[in-house]
Amino acid sequence: MELFCLPKPLQRATVLARPSKKIKSPYLADIEIDGKEILCHTAALGCCGYIIPGAIVWVLEKPDSIAKSTHEIYLIERDGLLVGCHPLVANKIASSLLKSQLVLPIGEIIQEVKFDTCRFDFASSDKQKIIEVKSVPMADYYDGTLKELKEFMKSEPTTKVAIFPFGKRKVELISPRALKHVESLTKLVQDHTCVLLFIIQRTDVESFTITKLDPVYKTAVFAAKEAGVLIKAICICWDNQRAYFEKEVPVVY
Fold first, then answer.
1. Would you tell me which CATH number, out of the four given (2.70.70.10, 3.40.1350.60, 2.40.50.1020, 2.160.20.10), belongs to the domain 87-252?
2. The overall pTM is greater than 0.85
3. Scanning 22, 48, 72, 122, which has the fewest C-beta atoms within 10 Å of its C-beta?
């Protein structure tokens, strides 16, 4: 089932540098398309080590852009797999999932709705159902430290798990904003139907987990689940222009 379509097919490119050597912004990268060096916007920053020199990315040329960058990264190619990395696209995909009733029964939806001190991505028109969306481009064979991963890889695993959040392994709290959202949902679920929806922009995973490297957020998500918040993880399949519904995967705590 098609959920989202870009205005035209993407172009394949190679990352030369990020940040760009011309403009030192973390949101800009130098890429190469058909031998030509181009300044490109990367909304996902470095995508936790995916957008680095030598990486293959798929980009969209901006129509009549007045920005300094002429292209924007939407997909990353990893071992022949296309991985969606644009965070704003995840919300557009989620909108289609909601309208197709693939997340929960819901009628008309509205976007960017504020409850208390938090702004959430979607709500039902009567504001009785609240949905917060998180984009998940990252996956690995094991959720843990580099040392634990190296040890686990000795068993030659064959399946991957999608992981969120995925950041610096020595940071105590990877995403304060994500923590604020889930704590607010835990309170609001007493009077609302609340959903924390993870959009996994790849198909090579069999499950989803909150990383144990962020124990504060992991504990908060489990508390939200116990309070009644629905935690859902849905995989998306990409070609070089369209995103399709692939499957819902179990959330492993």
1. 3.40.1350.60
2. yes
3. 22
